[in-house]
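Morning F.,

Quick status update on the modeling queue. The single chain you submitted on Monday has been processed. Sequence for confirmation:
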Amino acid sequence: MRRGPSRASKLNRMVLFGLFVGFSAPGLSAQDTRALSLMEEAGARYSDLRGFCARFQQVLAVPLLGDTTRASGSLCQEAPNLFAMRFAEPEGDLLVADGEAFWVYYPSSDPRQVLRFELESRPGGLDFQREFLESPGEKYTMAYLGTEALPGGSTHVLSLVPKGPAGFEGAKIWLDPDRFLIVRARIEMENGSVRTVSLSEIELNPSPDPSRFRFVPPEGAQVIRRR
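Structure tokens below.
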């Protein structure tokens, strides 16, 4: 059953009405107000999704090492807390939230080590749709940077700075104006590294498949628990 207009949607309409008649939210510039409006609308659309799957391309730049690596694979997530990022390159690497724990396994660098995080303390900025689109106004100071054409079409570009501890310093996101999903995110990590993830072939509400979010540590691997 389709839900009625969400609180976020109502707020978005109020902000847009204020812009139409020439007013802005107290203490916010026009760019900040537009960023808040877009992110609240995106958050409302995102909350209506059961899940999605996509192809991803990732570029990780580590200035301290003068190194840049590229990766690709598939990404899926499903409400309320399932997430999987499985790499085709490097083959076998993965990040999985199975509803009880968040697993990190990079056999390309160490096939004998698995990291297991509690869901509430998983590394920040990995599940970026959930990270940025759930309650964005409470978590980030935002600014609208304009529009930019990507291979999939025109996008809105916004900057986000966490208001509190988030595991990363800031982010720049590219928002699809039709589906209101993030199609590219550039995340500046606390250690100076910069990770850029681009999504394509996005499928909304795919058929449920529990195997997407299942991970069993390989026999002989050491599981290191992090809190």
